[in-house]
Amino acid sequence: MRPIHAAHPFLAQRRLWCRLEVHFNGVDLCFAMPSELDHFLGVMEQNPLPSGHRLHPGSRLGRPMRHWLAKLPAKSKPTRFRKSLCGFLRTDRKVQEFRDFYLSEPVRFDFPDVYDSFQTAQRATFSR
Q: How many Cβ atoms are within 10 Å of 9's Cβ, its own excluded?
C-alpha cells in the first residue's frame, strides 16, 4: 500500500526554520539558508558581475533571465551599491543572528536511502 503523504526528511529535519529579510536602500532580499546568503555575497562581490551564461550554464542563445541576478533591480547592480550592500550583510547584527541560528544544527542535504526521483531510486535498488 502506498502512503497518502510522505514527508521528505529535508523539511522534517528541524522544528524551526529561519528566514532573513533584508531591506537595503529600496532593494528587498530574502534568504532561507546561510548557503544562499554566501552564494549571493560571492556573486555580488565579483567585479564585473558574472554574465547570465556563466550563472545559468546550458541556457539557450540570448540573455538568460532565469537566474536570480536577472531579477534584481538595476539600481542594485552598480559597484558602489554592491560594495555597500555586501559590507552591510557582513557586519549587520541580524545577519549574524541568522547565521548563528543555523550554526548549532546545520542543514543537511543528503539523506541515506532517500531519492529525488523514482528513476534514481530504481537505479540505486538494482545496482546493489
A: 12
Q: Which three cell numbers stand for residue 25?
A: 536602500
Tell me how far apart the alpha carbons of residues 27 and 24 are, in angstroms, rounded to a whole number.
5
Q: Are 90 and 44 in contact (CB under 8 A)?
A: no
Lowest mean pLDDT among 64-68, 83-87, 110-114: 64-68
Backbone angles phi, psi at 28, to 5 degrees: -105, 130
Residue 53 dihedral angles phi and psi, to the nearest 5°? -70, -30
- Is the N-terminal amide bond of 48 cis, ω within 30° of 0? yes
The x, y and z cell numbers of residue 60, run together, are 539557450
Per-residue confidence band for 128, with pLDDT thresholds at 50, 70 and 90: low
Contact 94, 45 (CB under 8 A): no
Res. 53: pLDDT tops 90: no
**Domain locations in the chain as residue ranges:** 19-109
At 38, is the secondary structure helix, strand, or coil? helix
CA 69 to CA 54: how far, in whole Å? 11
3 pLDDT more than 60: no
